[in-house]
């Protein structure tokens, strides 16, 4: 799958705001002055204990007060995770007290100048947090998402427990520094999103940040994917990011973050003898304070047959043998998948059972109602030229009925077709079956 798209010429504009140094990197972040008002960040109103979009100031405060940094990343315009963000930002008294009294709390609301060597996490999240020492040591991460929904793994109880674990770790630092080996992540060939060769629309992003001009976290993955596809280095294995503990057979209590609630039968975790009720303390030697910490370790393992060591209470160590392709899972929820080629540029949500009955369609088979064709795009025009129209019902792809969401079908196309291929579709129009072949052009 090789992506061919129009590229923008590098901008000659200079982005000079609030020079920030963290670790060994130098990069630019937008001045927080006026940013809160431009973004209409209501959750930050009345929560002045947060340092707003100024990691440089936060780092100096953390060094001066000898407190850990609690850095939250939130895309303000995004609706997903909005309720959880409001609780963390100001509404939950327990989190508010912990953040204000025990941490140096930072609310980061744009990714333009964020150091991508220091701040590495799952960029497809709508809300994420990192806990960091002033010297750049990463204590923990928090924030997990899946096809179950944006808040399926986030909870105030789980966050509070992670915060208290971080305080214990900070109190033992630097004597416990070995616990954090590998938590920071490898250096990147660029420091900021604006330096990424695959990031489109740089001229727009160089302007003053507002609600229509944010670099979202998922744009980092968009840029990575685009550059990889353009250079021919793209592989599907890169799509299986931050696998859940479920991928190895562990169900972790979201309200705790480390306690095993159940072990999936027939999985590597089951074969290892891990038991419900125990707590995961270390994975491959890294201390665990949350589900996101487990994901961080798993993310950096290969998708081939491999092994991972899990340590529970009383230092019991077990080794899990993971099979080939163990990372594969439902990634249709990931925002970065929409920009990955090939793109159909059509929106066709799956019909409900009632809608299938109205059309006398089998309930057990997939069907998708074409609601929108983006004829302003090359791919949308290709779909229209092939004969697709609004209100058509797609009932099969390559002769196969696919009973899944439209997002899952979109991923299915990306995993099985390439730009230049023809996508064979069976559609229904006015009760009659038609066959069309859509050229995948972008």
Ordered list of secondary-structure elements with their pairings:
Blueprint: E1 19-22, E2 25-28, H1 35-39, E3 51-52, H2 55-65, E4 69-74, H3 82-91, H4 93-102, E5 104-108, E6 127-132, E7 138-142, H5 156-171, H6 202-205, H7 218-231, E8 250-252, E9 260-263, H8 268-272, E10 282-283, E11 286-287, H9 291-299, E12 306-311, E13 317-322, E14 346-347, H10 353-358, E15 368-369, E16 372-373, H11 378-385, E17 393-397, H12 406-416, E18 422-429, E19 432-439
Parallel strand pairs: 3-5, 4-5
Antiparallel strand pairs: 1-2, 4-6, 6-7, 8-9, 10-11, 10-12, 12-13, 14-16, 15-17, 17-18, 18-19
Explain what this protein looks like in three dimensions.
With 442 residues, the chain is an alpha+beta fold. It folds into 3 domains: 19-228, 3-Layer(aba) Sandwich (Glutaredoxin), CATH 3.40.30.10; 245-322, PDZ domain (Pdz3 Domain); 342-439, PDZ domain (Pdz3 Domain), CATH 2.30.42. 25% of the residues lie in helices and 19% in strands. The protein contains 12 helices and 19 strands. The chain has helices at 35-39, 55-65, 82-91, 93-102, 156-171, 202-205, 218-231, 268-272, 291-299, 353-358, 378-385, 406-416, and strands at residues 19-22, 25-28, 51-52, 69-74, 104-108, 127-132, 138-142, 250-252, 260-263, 282-283, 286-287, 306-311, 317-322, 346-347, 368-369, 372-373, 393-397, 422-429, 432-439. The strands form 6 sheets. Strands 3-5-4-6-7 form a 5-stranded mixed sheet, with helices on both faces. A hairpin with a 2-residue loop joins β1 (19-22) and β2. The radius of gyration is 23 Å and the shape is globular. The chain starts with 18 loop residues before the first strand and ends with a strand. Mean pLDDT is 91; it is low at 1-27.
């Amino acid at each position: 799958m090789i992506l061919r798209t129009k590229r923008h010429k590098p901008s000659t504009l200079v982005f000079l705001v609030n020079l920030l140094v963290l670790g060994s990197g130098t990069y630019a972040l937008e001045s927080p002055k006026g940013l809160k008002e431009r973004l209409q960040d209501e959750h930050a109103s009345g929560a002045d204990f947060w340092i707003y979009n100024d990691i440089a100031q936060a780092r100096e405060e953390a060094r001066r007060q000898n407190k850990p940094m609690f850095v939250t990343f939130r895309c303000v315009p995004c609706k997903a995770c909005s309720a959880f963000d409001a609780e963390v930002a100001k509404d939950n008294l327990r989190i508010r007290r912990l953040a204000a009294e025990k941490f140096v709390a930072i609310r980061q609301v744009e990714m333009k100048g964020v150091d991508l060597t220091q701040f590495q996490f799952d960029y497809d999240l709508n809300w994420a947090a990192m806990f960091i020492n002033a010297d750049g040591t990463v204590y923990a991460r928090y924030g997990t998402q899946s096809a179950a929904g944006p808040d399926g793994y986030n909870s105030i109880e789980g966050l509070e427990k992670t915060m208290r674990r971080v305080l214990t770790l900070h109190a033992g630092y630097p004597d416990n520094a070995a616990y954090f080996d590998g938590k920071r992540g490898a250096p990147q060939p660029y420091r900021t999103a604006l330096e990424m060769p695959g990031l489109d629309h740089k001229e727009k992003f160089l302007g003053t940040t507002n609600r229509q001009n944010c670099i979202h976290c998922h744009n980092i993955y968009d840029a990575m994917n685009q550059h990889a596809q353009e250079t021919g280095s793209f592989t599907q294995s890169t799509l299986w990011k931050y696998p859940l503990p479920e991928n190895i057979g562990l169900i972790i209590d979201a309200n705790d973050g480390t306690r095993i609630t159940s072990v999936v039968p027939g999985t590597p975790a089951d074969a290892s003898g891990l038991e419900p009720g125990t707590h995961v303390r270390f994975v491959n030697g890294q201390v665990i304070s949350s589900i996101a910490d487990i994901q961080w370790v798993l993310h950096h393992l290969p998708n081939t047959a491999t092994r991972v060591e899990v340590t529970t209470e009383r230092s019991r160590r077990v080794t899990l043998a993971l099979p080939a392709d163990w990372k594969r899972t439902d990634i249709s929820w990931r925002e970065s998948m929409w920009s990955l080629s090939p793109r159909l540029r059509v929106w066709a949500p799956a019909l409900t059972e009632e809608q299938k009955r109205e059309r006398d369609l089998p309930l057990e088979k997939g069907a998708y109602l074409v609601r929108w064709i983006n004829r302003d795009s090359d791919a949308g025009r290709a779909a229209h030229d092939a004969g697709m129209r609004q209100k058509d019902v797609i009932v099969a792809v390559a002769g196969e009925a696919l009973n899944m969401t439209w997002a899952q079908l979109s991923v299915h196309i990306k995993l099985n077709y390439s730009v230049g291929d023809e996508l064979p579709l069976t559609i229904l129009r006015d009760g009659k079956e038609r066959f069309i072949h859509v050229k995948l052009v972008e």
